[in-house]
Each structure stands twice: as structure tokens, then as C-alpha cells.
Write a structure and sequence with these properties.
Chain lengths: 143, 299
């Protein structure tokens, strides 16, 4: 009986390990790849890791104080040229949605926001039919 | 009991005079690191507030874009570095020098920038975070004004890495001080320029809008007030500044935003607006309060 259970335990452990490996997200190449994609004239401010932990996490959120009179750009990078279903949404300090990067079933990889109201803004990344649940993002600014 | 010990120890040090003897320095440093056992609030909460604080580089760009001339006299001299012996002063002045470096970079004052870089590297080494500055690369980039974008990028990345590392290492208190120092210096420069040019309403509004960031800094410092006497003292100063900021009103009107797609980029039209009600007297008062806090830090 013990002999019969042993291979099952080993296979189970291997499957669990394999799932863990698949779920790992190395977002560093995406964050560093995203910085040069900021449009000309934008100065780099922050890079954000987008790790959906293999789909177990439904959203990743960061926040930043945007200043009136400044234009901000947020871009999203994932595997290949696409955003791999990663959607970036921007919310103001009262949690009003400013914008979402999914329009007519299209995923836009960059948003530009000329800010009129100084305040805390929430940058939220969600996954819509994503395959890797892994990406990176860069925030830049210009006056 | 512990507070009593700190007070006694500080009184003893004060009685011995203010010379920076090696033993005294070592004692100050041990006191400095022993003082922070960690706040009751979680590191996650601290990180979420820290990440919101904007880069001082934004203000340097605003100053340059508004036609303000470069003024080295507004900055903290890199030669003051020998005055900073405790971790508290090192971290705060690392933030201050970081803002000064950004300012020199934006104005393409490369030699001044290199002087700041030297002091930044020394302070960072003193806090065991010097590994994040590749001074050779930065020095090479600084020799040519065509490398400005790369120089700004690499210095911003260095400071971001430091903040991330400090938080991962459970030393978020230093990250709070670094960001607070950077903000204080940016405020000092902006207030000095705004006071000398009252016609620049954009600068006045920028100073007024810092009310939101000051709230974050006060919140961050308050997390440490029970465990670090230096940070508690800085908190008191910032709360005085916050009292002055209570006279400034920010009125926001919300309107739903619209957008259009231009060359693959979603360009948002922000239909909301905000009005910042601030007077010349408010600016003068804030300038004086910031100047006083800054003097305590850099002296």
C-alpha cells in the first residue's frame, strides 16, 4: 500500500512545484523595457511591477500624488508587443474612475493624463483574459 | 523608562559640549540605530504611503520651465557633509542632496552635480546603501549635456532602488527621512523663488498644493513618534507647518473626464478643476517655517 502511495505523493509534489514555477512572475524585464517606451519629453518617475500571481490576484494597485499643470504618462508592457490583457485604470482621490485603458475590446498600452487637480491618484492594473498575469509599467511626467 | 534614558543620555552629551569626538559620534550612532525598534503600524501601510510622495524633480522642472534662473545659493553646500554623523541626519541630508542633484541636473550644471554626487555617495555609504550609486557611470554621463535624459533616469532609478531596498530591509524609517528631506529642500527652493517673484501664481499654487503631501509626511512621521525621538521632534516641526497650511483652501470641482486616442496613446481630457486659495502672506509664513526646519537639518 505504501509503495502505491509513494509515487502519487512524488507526482503531486512535482505538479505543485511545476505550478509554482509557472506562477512566478519576473516583472523586471517588463518594467525596464517600459521606461524607454515613455513618449519623448517625458521624464521617468516610477516603475511598477504587475504580478497577478498566476491569476490568484485580481488587481495590483499603486498610488501617487499627481500635480495640477503636469502631464503624466503611464504605459503597460507585457509579453510580446501586447499588454496581454492587462488593463490600467486611473482613479482620483475620491475613487472616481478617470479612465480605463480597455476601449471597444482594445487594450491601449499608454495613457497620457494632463492633470488639472492635485491629489492622490490610484493606478490600478487588472487582468482581462491574461495568459501570463505578469507585466510591468512605467510612470513619467512632463510640464 | 527608555525615554528617561534618552533624555539623560542627551543631557550628558550636551553637558560635554558639541565637538564631534569619535566616542561621542559612536555613541550617537548607536543611540540613533537603537532608537528605532519599529513602529506598530505594518510595513505595508508605510510603503503604500511612501510610494505616493512625488519626486522633487517635478518641482525642479517646473522652476526651469517657468523661466527661473539657476541659483546655487539656494542649495545646501555639498561641503556640509562632515556635519552629518547620525543616521537621522545622514538620511535627511541624503534626501536634501538628492533634490539638489536633481536641480543641478535639470539646469545642466554638471560640475555642481558631480560635487553633489560625491557627497551623496559618501552619505549613502554611511547608511550602507552606497552600492546603489554607480558613480563612474554617472560621472561619465555628466560630462556631456546630451546625456541629460540618461543622467536623470539613472539618478531617479538609484533613489527608487534605495527606497525599495530600505523598505525591504525593515529600515523604512530611513526611507521616510530621505523622502522628507527631499521634500523639504524642494519646498525651500520653491518658496524662496516664489517669495522673490510674487507674480508667479503657478509657483504659489504649487506651494499650496503641497498641503496634500505634507499630510502624508506628517502621517509617516507620526508612525515613528513613539520609537524615535528625532523623528518625533521633526514631526512637531511639521505639525506647526501643517497649522499654517490650514489657512490654505483647496476647492475641487469634479467633472467626468473624456479621452481620445492619438497615435495609439489614450489622451485624457481632465474636465475636473481645482482652485488653491493662497496669499502672499501664506507664502512668506511657509517660507520662514520651512527655512527654520531646514536649518535645523543642514546645520
Amino acid at each position: 500500500m505504501k509503495k502505491a502511495i509513494y509515487p502519487l505523493v512524488v507526482v503531486g509534489m512535482l505538479m505543485a512545484f511545476s505550478f509554482q514555477v509557472n506562477a512566478q512572475c519576473d516583472s523586471e524585464p517588463y518594467t525596464s523595457g517600459c521606461i524607454p517606451k515613455l513618449a519623448s519629453g517625458f521624464n521617468f518617475l516610477k516603475s511598477y511591477k504587475i504580478d497577478g500571481q498566476g491569476g490568484t490576484k485580481t488587481k495590483v494597485e499603486y498610488s501617487y500624488v499627481f500635480t495640477k499643470g503636469t502631464q503624466y504618462m503611464i504605459n503597460v508592457c507585457a509579453t510580446g508587443e501586447s499588454t496581454d490583457g492587462i488593463v490600467v485604470s486611473l482613479f482620483d482621490s475620491n475613487r472616481n474612475k478617470v479612465v480605463s485603458s480597455k476601449v471597444n475590446d482594445q487594450y491601449i498600452s499608454a495613457i497620457a493624463y494632463p492633470c488639472n487637480t492635485t491629489g492622490i491618484y490610484y493606478i490600478q492594473y487588472t487582468f482581462d483574459e491574461s495568459t501570463q498575469f505578469c507585466g510591468g509599467s512605467a510612470l513619467g511626467f512632463k510640464r | 523608562m527608555r525615554n528617561l534614558f534618552f533624555v539623560s543620555a542627551l543631557a550628558f552629551l550636551a553637558a560635554c559640549g558639541s565637538g564631534n569626538k569619535p566616542d561621542e559620534q559612536a555613541f550617537l550612532e548607536s543611540l540613533d540605530s537603537a532608537a528605532v525598534e519599529g513602529p506598530e503600524i505594518s510595513e505595508e501601510v508605510i510603503s503604500s504611503v511612501l510610494q505616493q510622495i512625488p519626486s522633487p524633480l517635478e518641482i525642479s522642472v517646473l522652476l526651469k520651465e517657468s523661466g527661473t534662473k539657476y541659483d546655487k545659493q539656494l542649495l545646501n553646500s555639498p561641503d556640509n557633509i562632515s556635519k552629518y554623523n547620525s543616521n537621522y541626519h545622514k538620511a535627511l541630508n541624503l534626501g536634501i542632496y538628492g533634490t539638489d542633484l536633481g536641480y543641478t541636473n535639470i539646469y545642466e550644471q554638471n560640475q555642481d552635480g558631480l560635487d553633489y554626487m560625491g557627497s551623496i555617495k559618501d552619505l549613502a555609504d554611511g547608511l550602507s546603501i552606497g552600492q546603489f550609486f554607480d558613480i563612474e557611470t554617472i560621472g561619465r554621463l555628466a560630462t556631456n549635456s546630451k546625456n541629460l535624459d540618461s543622467l536623470l533616469l539613472i539618478t531617479t532609478q538609484n533613489f527608487n532602488s534605495i527606497n525599495q531596498y530600505l523598505q525591504e530591509q525593515g529600515r523604512a524609517n530611513l526611507s521616510v527621512l530621505l523622502l522628507a528631506g527631499g521634500w523639504i529642500e524642494a519646498m525651500h527652493i520653491t518658496c524662496e523663488v516664489a517669495a522673490s517673484d510674487p507674480s508667479n501664481k503657478e509657483l504659489q499654487e504649487t506651494i499650496g498644493s503641497q498641503k496634500i503631501i505634507l499630510e502624508n509626511i506628517v502621517l509617516l512621521l507620526s508612525f515613528y513618534q513613539q520609537v524615535d525621538q528625532n523623528m518625533a521632534s521633526l514631526l512637531t516641526d511639521m505639525q506647526v507647518l501643517q497649522t499654517e497650511y490650514e489657512n490654505i483652501e483647496i476647492v475641487t470641482t469634479y467633472e467626468e473626464s473624456t479621452f481620445e486616442i492619438v497615435d495609439g496613446v489614450m489622451v485624457i481630457k481632465d474636465n475636473s478643476s481645482s482652485e488653491i486659495k493662497i496669499t502672499d502672506q501664506n507664502i512668506e509664513n511657509i517660507k520662514n517655517l520651512i527655512g527654520s526646519v531646514r536649518n535645523k537639518i543642514i546645520s
